[in-house]
Design a protein that fits this description.
single chain, 512 residues, mainly alpha, globular
């Protein structure tokens, strides 16, 4: 057995470990709203989320192209170079994500994988051209700069977009329903829920279907009948929800939250599965391409990675099964979820974060904007808005952290943004989108009162600071690991692999 086969096996084992640490981090994206609103028991929520993860696996295949050619141009790299990049990426990813999980902070698996690929590819590209004088390619040729910059810009742009859209949507929804949710739901619940269900159907079925392989006939039918499907979805949803509410006393917002949990879990699997298994699967496929060539590892150029290849469906569902098991068993997933729930809570909680200069500055600026806004609005209008937003702070620990209306907005808006990005083959950060939508909705919903705002804003600042730290740390660490493997050889890579696995096992045993 050659050493490269051992490296491919190591990559597949690292994929399992990355699925565990990745899901422990990303479970916050689709569980926070359902758990925070206590729409059902945790067991029911996990069952629905698990079903969404399995459904989303069918949408993941197209996204694998990001690992193959989204960050670097494979035609300039040999098989030996590509394996160095992939090993550096996976070793770094496991250690980085597990560190954030241990701190209970949600970070972005998309940002980590993109910047790890970028860091390792830049380092290997520089070493490769330095070692071989015949290779005089510039680093800009080796890196897919246009695609990489598009991905990076989309990821960081999503922070502002998600926060703004979440805040505006929640403010309008609360203005419509008020905090007297029983009365509002009785009058408008079925109609509002039907709109939410139609949005979920449109973006996850029609937009998300582009990434799935259901056959040309099915795809063409959906494309040609988009308006009819949307219309029937709204009419059918409204009729069913209205009947359930009137005849059986079912709260339509509960159905939206459960459906939204399913849809967001589905969008997560469709968009983020590439972060965990894209690199190992590409390494696995690269190995057999190299074996068939009969060339030396450093002579076989990986131009074939630029071609579109469908990922074997069995591997996708095996990955989905590992993700589901992690959802049920991971203590770290529960801790990361609790961070987001606390930051969006409508009542008093034990604040984890201390106010800092940045959070105080943000609050001062926000108060200044509020004063400007209130000065420009008529007093009668302000009084009417205040009446619509009157609420009693949650003091009972057993009550939900926030109500079903905010949970619905969190899930629907996050699903829209993530599914739309997936349809464009952009690996949008589901963590950034989900977290910032929830924080924007919390702000609009007056969850950040005068007493809690300094702590909550400090928490958001800490989490966002961790995101930027993820980008810088992922790039630097992956580049350093790639440097070590490049000069140390394949057995050094295997030694680093063993260290990463030991660290991961010890970390999870300690957390238990």
């Amino acid at each position: 057995m050659d050493s490269y086969l051992f490296l491919v096996i190591a990559l597949l084992i690292l994929a399992i470990g990355d699925l565990v640490v990745g899901v422990s981090n990303d479970a916050v994206n689709f569980l926070t709203s359902a758990i925070g609103s206590k729409v059902a028991s945790r067991k029911v929520i996990l069952i629905i989320a698990a079903a969404g993860v399995f459904a989303g696996a069918a949408f993941s295949s197209g996204m694998m192209e990001v690992a193959r050619k989204g960050i670097f141009n494979p035609s300039f790299f040999s098989f030996a170079d590509v394996i160095v990049i992939f090993m550096a990426v996976m070793i770094t990813d496991i250690l980085l994500l597990d560190g954030f999980n241990s701190l209970g902070l949600p970070t972005s698996t998309t940002v980590s994988i993109v910047f790890e690929l970028l860091g390792a590819a830049v380092m290997v590209g520089l070493l490769m051209t330095h070692a071989d004088a015949t290779k005089d390619h510039s680093i800009l040729e080796l890196i897919n700069t246009s695609k990489a910059s598009q991905i990076i810009a989309g990821i960081f742009l999503s922070i502002g977009v998600a926060f703004s859209v979440g805040a505006l949507t929640q403010w309008l929804s609360r203005l419509w329903f008020t905090f007297n949710l029983r009365k509002g739901t009785k009058r408008f619940g079925a109609f509002f829920a039907a709109i939410c269900m139609t949005i979920i159907t449109y973006f996850l079925l029609i937009k998300g279907i582009k990434g799935a392989d259901f056959g040309a006939g099915v795809n063409r039918f959906i494309k040609e009948n988009t308006l009819s499907i949307v219309g029937l979805s709204f009419a059918g949803s409204f009729a069913i929800l209205w009947l359930l509410q009137r005849m059986a006393g079912v709260n339509p917002l509960k159905i939206v939250v459960l459906a939204g949990t399913f849809s967001l879990a589905m969008a997560f699997a469709g968009n983020d599965l590439v972060n965990f298994i894209g690199v190992p699967i590409t390494g696995y496929q690269s190995y057999f391409l190299w074996q068939d060539s009969g060339l030396l590892a450093d002579a076989f150029m990986m131009s074939s990675l630029a071609e579109s290849v469908q990922t074997p469906r069995l591997l996708l569902y095996l990955a989905g099964a590992i993700m589901v098991v992690t959802l049920w068993l991971s203590a770290k997933a529960q801790r990361v979820t609790s961070t987001s729930v606390q930051l969006g809570s409508q009542g008093k909680v034990d604040e984890r974060f201390k106010p800092n200069l940045v959070s105080k500055g943000i609050i001062t600026a926000a108060l200044g904007f509020k004063d400007f806004f209130t000065a420009a609005m008529p007093n009668k209008t302000l009084a009417a808005i205040d009446r619509r937003f009157a609420f009693e702070e949650v003091t009972d620990e057993n009550k939900p952290a926030f109500d079903l209306l905010r949970a619905s907005v969190n899930l629907v808006i996050a699903s829209i943004l993530i599914a739309f990005a997936s349809s464009l083959k952009l690996p949008l950060s589901t963590t950034y989108v989900s977290f910032m939508v929830a924080m924007g909705a919390s702000l609009a919903d007056k969850a950040w009162g005068a007493g809690s705002a300094p702590y909550r804003v400090a928490g958001v600042v800490n989490v966002i600071g961790g995101w930027f730290l993820t980008a810088a740390g992922a790039f630097t660490a992956s580049a350093i690991v790639a440097l070590i493997i490049f000069y140390g050889g394949n057995y050094t890579a295997l030694a680093l692999f063993a260290i990463a696995i030991v660290v991961l096992i010890r970390s999870n045993l300690r957390k238990k």
